[in-house]
Specification:
single chain; 387 residues; alpha+beta; Butyryl-Coa Dehydrogenase, subunit A, domain 1; Butyryl-CoA Dehydrogenase, subunit A, domain 3; 3 domains; four-stranded mixed sheet; four-stranded antiparallel sheet; 15% strand; globular
């Protein structure tokens, strides 16, 4: 077994780490508190060519794999940008995979090159208030009308909708009770026409530099040429992005855990109480050492998962396990970093409170820890399905 990164992968990690050093904790705190999209960061990543990392070369990208994408997003999160930074570029880095695999040549030609250079923002419209994680129960409906579809419905927790020109939108084209659960769902990549889509930001606990939104869709006309693949096959197309998404989230959680641990160690060495550094106290030192061990172990599972995906092998077990372990390890490290800072950890003067808020999200999105255990229990262990 070879655990070494390739020379090119090491270069990616180092180059991204060098670039994001220009965006410090003060920058991210200001963006978070102002609820302002990190345009300067996004533009810097775009100028560096990083948004096209996994876009096929024929569409202006580098054609690299999920391993490279996770290295990039881990470094972005580890820089202190956390989920604000990662969420600003997440969908561009690998979220277009259903379009890459199943979209028409025309659809790919007019969207992917713009993704690669960064002048096209896209949001992902799947989740609905009445469906949650049961994607087959969505009710947003696309009715065929000649060379268009007319879409009506509602979406929720749509990141970057305020900044996005287009939306990767999942709809029903056949009513739920007239098809198999996973049939009758159709995917589109289409314009987010503000005259037919009302976007309402959701006040939330953290990650406020990147908005989360409710969308109210009223007679949105979508050209047939904006459909991804065949009508009724959208759910299957989404599956191409599920395992990579879990790996990307795992990498981001890992990055947040690493930077939180770094900050805790630095504070533990600098802060003196009772005439000695607080990091000398085993009550603080041992939890941080334990987090180091758990972050290292979680990273190994993530590396296995990305290797399997990039080599065309089944990876559902490893992708879900990586998401589960990295999310838990990242949040625990952030929680312990806050505890190490004591009362100052609760103050916004230090960044650890922001890390704590953002790391907590990783145990919920894009799939909860409980749903990961459901998957492992039924699909891996062979126990009866509980839902």
């Amino acid at each position: 077994m070879d655990f070494a990164l390739t020379e090119d992968q090491e270069l990616i990690r180092k180059a991204v780490a060098e670039l994001v050093k220009n965006f410090d904790d003060a920058y991210w705190m200001a963006k978070d508190q102002a609820h302002e999209f990190p345009t300067e960061f996004y533009d810097a990543i775009a100028r560096g060519g990083w948004l096209g990392l996994t876009v096929p070369e024929e569409y202006g990208g580098h054609g690299l794999g999920i391993t490279e994408a996770t290295l990039l997003l881990e470094e972005v999160a580890r820089s202190g940008g956390g989920m604000n930074a990662a969420s600003a570029i997440h969908l561009s880095i690998f979220g277009m995979q259903p379009v890459v695999v199943h979209g028409s040549e025309q659809l790919k030609a007019r969207t992917l090159p713009r993704i690669a250079v960064g002048d096209l923002h896209v949001c992902f419209g799947v989740t609905e208030p009445g469906a949650g994680l049961d994607t087959t129960r969505i009710t947003t409906f696309a009715r065929r009308d000649g060379d268009h579809y007319v879409v009506n419905g509602r979406k929720v927790w749509i990141s970057k909708a305020l900044e996005s020109e287009k939306i990767l939108l999942l709809t029903r084209t056949t009513p739920f009770d007239e098809a198999r659960r996973t049939d009758g769902l159709t995917l589109f990549l289409t314009d987010l026409d503000r005259s037919h889509v009302d976007i309402r930001p959701i006040p939330k606990m953290g990650r406020n530099a990147v908005s989360s939104n409710e969308l109210f869709i009223d007679d949105l006309r979508v050209p047939v040429v904006d459909r991804v693949g065949e009508e009724g096959q959208g759910f299957r197309y989404l599956l191409d992005g599920l395992n990579p998404e879990r790996m990307l989230i795992a990498a981001e959680a890992l990055g947040i855990g690493r930077v939180a641990l770094d900050r805790a160690v630095r504070y533990g060495n600098e802060r003196e109480v009772f005439g000695r550094p607080i990091g000398m106290n085993q009550g603080l030192q041992f939890p941080l050492a334990d987090s180091l061990a758990h972050l290292d172990a979680a990273e190994l599972v993530l590396r296995k998962a990305t290797w399997l995906y990039d080599n065309g092998k089944p990876c559902g077990r490893e992708a879900n396990t990586a998401k589960y372990l990295c999310a838990d390890a990242g949040f625990t490290a952030a929680d312990r970093a806050l505890q190490t800072h004591g009362g100052m950890g609760y103050a916004e003067e230090y960044a650890v409170a922001r890390y704590f808020r953002e790391a907590r999200l990783m145990r919920i999105a894009p799939v909860s820890q409980e749903m990961v255990l459901n998957y492992l229990g039924s699909h891996v262990l062979g126990l009866p399905r509980s839902y």
